[in-house]
Amino acid sequence: xxMNLPKMDGVNVCREYRSKGGQSPILMLTGxxxxxDKEAGFMAGVDDYLxxxxxMKELSMRIRAILKRPKSVAGDVLKVGDLVLDLVAHEVSRxxxxxxxxxxxxxxxxxxxxxxxxxxxxxxxxxxxWKAESERTADSIRTSIKKIRQQIDREGKDSIIKNVHGxxxxxxxx
Length: 174
Hints:
The chain is α+β, with helices and mostly antiparallel strands. It is built from 6 helices and 8 strands, in the order αβαβαββββαααββ. The strands form 3 sheets. Strands 3-4-5-6 form a 4-stranded antiparallel beta sheet, covered by helices on one side.
């Protein structure tokens, strides 16, 4: 999209498309480079923003990066099987049952849901989820995974968060 489309600008086109459930990636290509323009684009739901003039290699790299992202990234609600994470309401539910998760467990579950079936080492998870150095330990990962499992797992069924021996953890897309 371009910000300067005739009749309806790109921000409004994106906002309307997203409000109707549109999930396709959107890259804003425009000459408008102000931070308020970029903020308006991202708030409307664009996946990336590139200002003109740009190099074709940069455009190609950004398109490839957008297309690598899992489909579950789009929107404010992530779904993996019957597990639902609402980013706006900061709520998690499984099979309709509400689940309360503290901030770090919520962020860890969000990260895993954005990357279903991908294995992450504890170091990857620390780098991606734990920003503060004081909170970063391998025990942080183990403890958080255990707490999440206690909340989301169903009795008598295997956990959807799997240990991959010697490698790390993944959330299985079922």
